[in-house]
Amino acid sequence: MASIKYGYHVKRKWLEQAAAFYQSEADWAAVLRINIHVQDWEAAALTAAHIAGLPLTDDQAAVFGSLLIGCPDELLITNHVLLEFVLHHCRVQDQELGLAYVDRALNQGSEAHAYVQQVSLYEWGARFAQLLQKKTMALEYLQLAETAALESTQPGQDEERGDREINAAKRKLASRKSQLLAENASRLVKPVQWVRLLTVLAAVTCMISFHYLRLMGDLSRPAMDFIGIAIAAVMLWIVNIIPDYLVALGMVMLWVLGGLVEPEAALSGFASTTWLFMIFIMALSAAVTKSGILYRFSLHALKRFPPHYRGQLWGIVAGSFALNALIPSSSAKVSLGVPIAGTISESMGFKSRSRGAAGLGLAAMIFYGFTAPFVLTGSYTNVMAYGLVSSDEPVSWLHWALYALPAFLIFGIVMLLLLSYMFRGTVAEKGVSAGILNEQIRLLGPLSKEERIAVITILGCILLMVLQPLHGIDSTWILMVGFSVLVITGILDKQTLTSGIDWTFLLFLGVAFSFAEVANQLGIVEALSSFLGGPMAWFVSSPTLFLLAVIFLSFLVTLVVRDDPAVILLVTALLPLAEQAGIHPWILVIIILLSTDPFFFTYQSPTYLTAYYSSDGKAFSHAQGQKVALGYAAAVLLVAVLCVPYWRWLGLIAQ
């Protein structure tokens, strides 16, 4: 009102006089309020800098931060003094917002923050992560803080190496963050208190009911108990209130305590060579990821393709080939590929979720993440799924690749045609700058001796697995030799072995292998085959119809059961029927692997969610993703139909 009555300039003069008065009285909160009221951000920054030099408690700093919460984000993430005050406020009021500010400051405003300030930001990130009960993320922030602190105490000494280590740590943290967000978003039912209680009661009721139910068919009492325990486990997996591996270990405990099987049978999965194979491949993958060599390969692939949209699209596809066999995790690959696509998209001038950004982002998601089933070492789940099959049907790395080659070509062509049609006519405002890629490559630095050893060892292991038909050495022992080389040379140290291997997944995996063995011992597999034999008889008569039925059944199952448990249930249940249909177990496994990661609904696919969150939702929208999901389903159906003649020619399907 004063500005209307007396004019803007008079009001401005009064505010300046008031600010001078409050400054003389050392009432800095009032001065700051006036600065913010007139949106004089330069004065507000100077006032905040003066306040920062005063002895303040955390609570006092939080009060000043509450005043600054309205500052433009662009100013906050680049002005460390202002950001510190706001973070104090977020510590009390909104930890999620505080973590978001830290992440943005590190990713977008890092050049404005000195090494010492970066250390502070990492420590803030660890503090917010701890308050939000994200313990693994908190540990990774602290590791980043330690790396930055070491660099800040040695200015000028191996600066390139310091930058490389910090950027590698940032990529690891960003990957972990996107996977945590994806894990939370993949829950079909949110684990509120009453849902937890009802689920646990239902699981207990299920186990008790099956223990006292009258025997069904030829099933024994231990078999009935096994079914009750398995259904209870599925309930807990669906709601996801208890970690998967803990539910799995609980099953083993109940099998043994209930007298269903001997401990040796209950733990037989941990004695399999496939379980050892998983340990070794995870360790080798950790060494490769630590080296940063795959990120380097992806950048070089992009650099060698034309700088326009279509050229970079093909560069993304080429880069995915280098990663697919070397990182056995779809989520890890999309966490690497989609951000690279985002960087290229920004350098071309594409806006968030624009046609160009979505085309590159979705191409990276599909070819970095969803092509994993076509190579044995493309995903942990591949090895897990085929580990459920009898060892009488071994498949080498080379056999897997040859069996899957036409399927991969069909899948790749369909997805490229779909992406080309959806984003046809897309033209970038400018070509991708070679300087962007060169800067990323520069930050990686030259290959070190340790990195060369890691790369040579990994490639040597893959070559030996490809040549397995000639030398006859099992892949497990080949990887064990590679593992030993990396440990002896110090590439795989204790910290990498501890943090780089997903030990909880290995616990889940060992139980998964035991699950198939125990189900077979108790006659569950035979009974299930008889039960499903009637309804599936028409489909069993035709390999093509059977595979199509498997795909639709898998799509339905993934509406309620997550990917790995769904794979276990489907492979165990359908393997006897596949044998009746004259279909090799490998065909059933790859069809199930392709069909248990759809993303019609966002929560269905951890791979999709990881891709979405690895770009902070900027690469593509869910609406764009769902259109690609329909194309993905069509591609899987075409694989099942068109590859039958090829698989029959190879003898994988009975004539």
From TrEMBL:
Subcellular compartments: Membrane
Protein topology in the membrane: Multi-pass membrane protein
InterPro entries the record matches: SLC13A/DASS
Family: Belongs to the SLC13A/DASS transporter (TC 2.A.47) family. NADC subfamily.
Transmembrane region(s): 194-214, 226-255, 275-295, 357-380, 400-423, 452-470, 476-492, 504-524, 536-561, 568-594, 629-647
Coiled-coil ranges (or none): none
The protein's name: Sodium-dependent dicarboxylate transporter SdcS
Keyword entries, A-Z: Membrane, Symport, Transmembrane, Transmembrane helix, Transport
Origin species: Paenibacillus mendelii
